[in-house]
Amino acid sequence: MLNIALPKGRLGDKVYSLLAKIGYDCSEIYADNRKLIFESVENSVRYLLVKPSDVAIYISHGAADIGIVGKDILEEDSFDLFELLDLNLGKCNMCVAAPVDFVEDLDRPLRVATKFTNIAKNYYLSLNREIEIIKLNGSIELAPLLGLSDVIVDIVETGTTLKENNLKVYEKIMPISARLIANKSSYKFKTAEIEELLAKLEKELKNND
Ligand code: PRP
Q: Mutate which of 161, 165, 176 to test ligand 1's pocket (most atoms within 8 Å of Cβ)?
């Protein structure tokens, strides 16, 4: 039995439909209940419904064999796991965003609000720019509107959240997309099952090119 950690939420919906296309139906996830584990006996897989930011933790600890996670999570923290495939979905950008009328004062440290503190620190280190980090856990866009920060480092997908809050992309840091990841010993001991799923995903992605 292959244990697959799937992200809940926005990325989840895209992932479930990709899996359904390659014959790994996980539509039971949409059942009106609070179950977090689903089994597909015909495919010998068990789906685990996990918060997107926790998928890599389950995989690196071996609580799940494979999983699907955003590249942002893999960039923010280092995990001991294999990154097997770029699924080319959930595409967005990690960006610096600021109020539309923002003018940077280079004579003082830049105040940066974000939940991606390591990505932000590494980015500004590469620019040799001194910053002060304000760690938030959500609704990051509020920070510059209330003067809590000068800019934010966050994910921009459609750009709607920025637009509706009078913010704009100031700099692009990196592109983000969903990745298939595997626990290292699972990959060794369940090679055939993982390679079978990987091959089907690769074929499906190629057909969509
Ligand atoms: C993410 C991100 C932005 C928004 C960007 O937030 O933090 O707020 O999506 O998407 P858009 O460009 O399509 O508007 P999420 O919905 O994950 O919630 P969060 O505020 O808890 O981070």
A: 161
159 lines ligand 1 (CB under 6 A): yes
For ligand 1, pick from 157, 160, 163, 166 the residue to mutate: most ligand atoms within 8 Å of CB. Answer: 157
> Residue 126 — φ and ψ, nearest 5°?
-65, -25
Ordered DSSP codes for 63-89: SSSEEEEEHHHHHHS--SSEEEEE---
Instruction: Give backbone dihedrals phi and psi of 185, rounded to 5 degrees, phi first.
Output: -75, -30
Give residue 32's pLDDT: 83
How far, in Å, CA of 68 to CA of 86, rounded?
Answer: 10
Enter the pTM of the model: 0.94
Looking from the CA of residue 164, the nearest atom of ligand 1 is 14
Q: Which tokens sit at 2?
A: 């292959």
pLDDT tens digits along 114-150 = 999 999 999 999 999 999 999 999 999 999 999 999 9
Q: What integer pLDDT is reported at residue 66 of this predicted model? A: 98
Q: Distance (Å, rounded) from C-alpha 104 to C-alpha 151? A: 9
Is residue 188 within 8 A of residue 5, CB to CB? The reply is no
Higher pLDDT: 27 or 94? It is 94
pLDDT digits (tens, 9 = 90+) for 146-172: 999 999 999 999 999 999 999 999 999
What atom in ligand 1 is closest to the CA of residue 161? 14
